[in-house]
Fold this sequence. Notes:
By secondary structure, the chain is of the alpha+beta class.
Amino acid sequence: MTDKLVKCLLVATFSVLSLTFSSPLLAQHPGTDPALKDRSKETSAQMGNEDSEKLKGGNKIDAAEVIMEHIMDNHEFHVADVAGHAVSLPLPIILYSKERGLDAFMSSRFDHGHQAYKGYTMDHNHINAIAADGSVDPSVKLYDLSLTRNAVQLLLASFLLVVLLLSVANRYKQRGSGKAPTGFQNAVEAMIVFIR
Length: 196
């Protein structure tokens, strides 16, 4: 009886959350709706020069390229867009080279790749050492030990998994494995059985 109740509550919770956090997508050409025209101008202003020129010239933008750019590894953790501005958490940049030694600073110092900092520059999330004249210095071999978005997500997921499984293991240690699991222990066991 309680298993059915728990399953019903999980399905209801998942359904409510899915409906709450879903957003409608508009699949209209930017020229058909004045509100979408303004949005198109904002979008082209936020895109790179090449993409905005393609949009103005009537050429099609490669959607796969734009999507891959957003899901690839990055040196900042994008949180949300608020009033047209991106809210993101900069991640630490840790660089080592025999020529320059160890350097550590936040990725926000690069201003999204528009500025150089401490003799380094970022171009498409690739960090290069630069010479005094601003050109890339090939004589400096960099070892990038930075925490990127994928590394941070991996660390967070690992931490959560360890905490969850340790709490379940402690519960088994207290109650023994002969008794049926209850509460959180039961929920974790149900997820494991579902995955299996």
